[in-house]
Amino acid sequence: MKELLKLTALELGAAIQTGEVSIREATQTALAAIEEREGELNCFITQTADRALERADALQAGVKEAKSLLYGVPMALKDNICTQGVKTTCASNILGDFAPPYQATAAQRLEAAGAVCLGKVNMDEFAMGSTTETSYYGPTRNPWDRQRVPGGSSGGAAAAVAGRECWYALGSDTGGSIRQPASYCGVTGIKPTYGTVSRYGLIAYASSLDQIGPLGRTAADCAAILDAIQGKDSRDSTSLDAPAGGLLASLTGDVKGMKIGLPAQCFGSGLDAQVERAVRGAAQVLKDRGAELVELDFPVMDYVIPTYYMIAAAEASSNLSRFDGVKYGWRTEGYDDLTDLYCKTRTQGFGSEVKRRILLGTFVLSSGYYDAYYKKALQAKEVIREAFRSAFQTCDLLLTPVAPTTAPRLGESLSDPLQMYLSDIYTVSVNLAGLPGLSMPCGFDGAGLPIGCQLIGPALGEAKVLGAAHAFQLDTDYHKRSPWEKEVG
Predict the structure, then answer these.
(1) Which of 211, 215, 310, 328 has a CA positioned 20 to 30 A from the CA of residue 454?
(2) Is 177 a residue of the active site?
């Protein structure tokens, strides 16, 4: 049964369609892998084994009529995506017993496509972090090296896919939270254009930046998942009325004539030499397939980190003000009055990183500092968006590193928050501009740790991004490597 774990989501879906594999068999295989590996990895906050098996049996009867290529394929959801009747904690004490009364649209659409949900996976608390170490439920460990982080905030999702505990997962990306853990764990992950996937049922961190997206083994898997979850949603006023579907069908492997820009500022100081070598190697693979590489200047990189953390923290301080112990969520005991209830609940309910960002956001929104910080950050955001618009007048895609280094050791980033924030330097600009960005495995460092390469497209350019990634994966096998195999060099 372990041979099933080597399949991609689409390969497993095809085996289910032909009757070669039953949905129960696939589900039991995943559950056995979870039982075997969770003690080491800690990917899941909540497992739903009984529900998954019931779902598998219910779906089996409809295999012959199934239209989705992912029908019956077991998967996982990041624990900030609401699931009706199943705990959704955001990896926080304050939401430890919260079982939503409704289902997120993205989860609903996967359910309609025949998904089997194995449970809710770990993350940084309220998606605030880059390592999955800020989780109230303990850190997730990187399957490639248990002493290293999987990235964040969708670290549980990336580690579960890389660790062969599920075939794909949904995460969320506010500043790189799908792409950076995908890079650290050696899987493929895409943040789609802002508004193409409904945020209804996604517990908000920074509403203008948050976006749900898939993590899978391959670009083709991610394309199939996006085909299932994209589309206008009347319950999300920011969702776009744009064409949905057809991404998987668009993957031809042809990149001839495609112009791919290499921003000079993304290959400067601070970038690990092994990472740069692997990323430039990925560019060469695409060039060998007929793409044209274009060196370009992108000076706005100097402003992306401060701009992002001003805006994200400001929105977080507003969004998280609702968690006060009154309407729902955890509530402290032994308070004197309403003010004391608020103070004690939030002090004890939130972790230190969440409190740090709430304080920063409250500060930049406060009287006397709003114009100096938040307003300037919004202006800088427009400058960054314009820089991308200008770049895409001469290029079809941009190619950059995902992170300056491979996965750091557990504890390193928590002791140096600034270093943790800087690990997002290549990813946050994509969220500020609302563009599609993908991470794909492109090599390994000397310690056998995965390295990811980022492809960035114009708005609604998912087909280009996925097409280039698919072309790269036709000529390479980095995405096929598994941490459970000894040969990773």
Answers:
(1) 310
(2) yes
Domain contains 318: no
Q: How many domains does the chain have?
A: 1
Nearest by Cα to 345 from 328, 364, 359, 362 = 328
Cβ neighbours of 208 (radius 10 Å): 17
pLDDT more than 70, % of the chain:
99
Q: Which two tokens stand for residue 405?
A: 């280094």
Q: Are 375 and 368 in contact (CB under 8 A)?
A: no
Asked if residue 364 is part of any domain, the answer here is no
Tokens standing for residue 68? 């989705």
Contacts of 343 (CB under 8 A, 6+ apart): none
246: left (phi over 0), alpha (psi -120 to 50) or beta: left
**Residue range 365-405, pLDDT digits in tens:** 999 899 999 999 999 999 999 999 999 999 999 999 999 99
* Phi, psi at 450, each rounded to 5°: -65, 150
> How far is 149 from 81, CA to CA, in rounded Å?
22
What is the signed CA dihedral for 159, 165, 166, 170, rounded to 10 degrees? Answer: -30
Which among 177, 317, 423, 429 is annotated as catalytic?
Answer: 177
- Specify whether 250 is catalytic: no
Contact by Cβ (8 Å): 136, 89: yes
Q: Is residue 120 part of a domain?
A: yes
Can you name the residues that pair with 294 across neighbouring β-strands? 261
Provide the pLDDT confidence category of residue 250 given band limits of 50, 70 and 90. Answer: very high
CATH code of the domain containing 475: 3.90.1300.10
The pLDDT, as a whole number, for residue 487 is 39
CA 75 to chain centre: 14
110 occurs within a structural domain? yes
d(CA 406, CA 118): 29
Binned at pLDDT 50, 70 and 90, residue 26 comes out as very high
Structural domain harbouring 101: 2-252+436-480
Identify whether 355 is a catalytic site residue. no
